[in-house]
Amino acid sequence: MSIVLNEILKPLHKWYSLPWIEEIAVNNTHSVWLRLRNMNPQWVEQKDPKLTTKYFQDLFHIISSFYQLSFNPQSGFPMIYATLPGEHRFSGIIGKNVMFDSKDSKGGVALVIRTATKAGGYDLGSYHVEEGQPLKQINKTEYDLPDDAFRKIQFLIQSGKPIIISGATATGKTSLLNYIISQLKSSMRIITVEDTHELSVPQKNHIHFILSRTQATNKFSYQHLIDLIVRFSPNAIIGSEISMQNASALWSIVNTGHSHFYTTIHAESVQGAYKTLVDRILETSDHYSQLDLLEDVKKKFHVIQLSADGGIRAITAVE
């Protein structure tokens, strides 16, 4: 059986075995993204006609059989985690819970293979620690927001601060979210989480995860989604509108430390947005103190409030 496994891995092995590759990612057929070690840009796309739908279907079935994993995209678990020969880590999903574009309406594929770390490959200098020098500051927690609303929004987007877009029905929340996505760097790797596919992502390196509120047919849950996202190395995560089903999971994702997290919520004020998010989290996770959770949510998120009057839509607050 190991011969069969090694044979099916060959079209991917030729990429993840290269010494300058940190990991590879597949977002759709006929294409593989290579994450380069200590290089800019981080991700480079390579076209590969061997990576067909049939190839990935066979790949997932052979890996699940070899490692005796529970795998059934239709009615069971659509994802696989495995350690491949050479200690390379495989994480993948196939089926209706993942898509690259509308062509994948019947089901797509996404996977990441993280290459094994060689002993002795890193030292303190790899983490910017030098004797007698201050530590390098990344994603500073203390910052001053500009007073001007336009500059404030631009700063929040460019610096990757988590943002909730709040508003009542028909105030333009999804449209503003699509605008924010369009302002992100073209080189970024984007993951979206939706119950129906609405978001437009111009960045080529992207994945859409779909978790329907009403048409779930398999065992894929938001907890499984969290496990996948932390393995898939996103630069930005875009969540669908906050609901009772997803609030706790999206809050968990924010607490993994990812920057560039954006979502929407149905609320009529900034304070209402914070309260609604807290209420939704507590509906499925009652181990939080309401006051402590509210304080943490306010520390983590900025809110852009939308309002509408007739045909006029406007941003009325940024906090």
Order of helices and strands: HEEEHEEEEHEHEEHEHEHHEE
Q: What's the shape?
A: globular
Which CATH architecture of the largest domain would you pick? Answer: 3-Layer(aba) Sandwich
The fraction of residues assigned to DSSP E strands is: 25-35%
Give the class-level CATH name of the largest domain: Alpha Beta
Helix content: 25-40%
What's the total count of β strands?
14
Q: If you compute it from the alpha carbons, what radius of gyration comes out, rounded to the nearest whole angstrom?
A: 21 Å
Q: Supply the CATH superfamily name of the largest domain.
A: P-loop containing nucleotide triphosphate hydrolases
Helix/strand/pairing category: alpha/beta
Which regions are unreliable across 5 or more consecutive residues at pLDDT < 50? none
Distance between the termini: 58 Å
- Strand order across the largest sheet: 6-10-9-11-12-8-13-14
- Structurally, how many domains make up the residues? 2
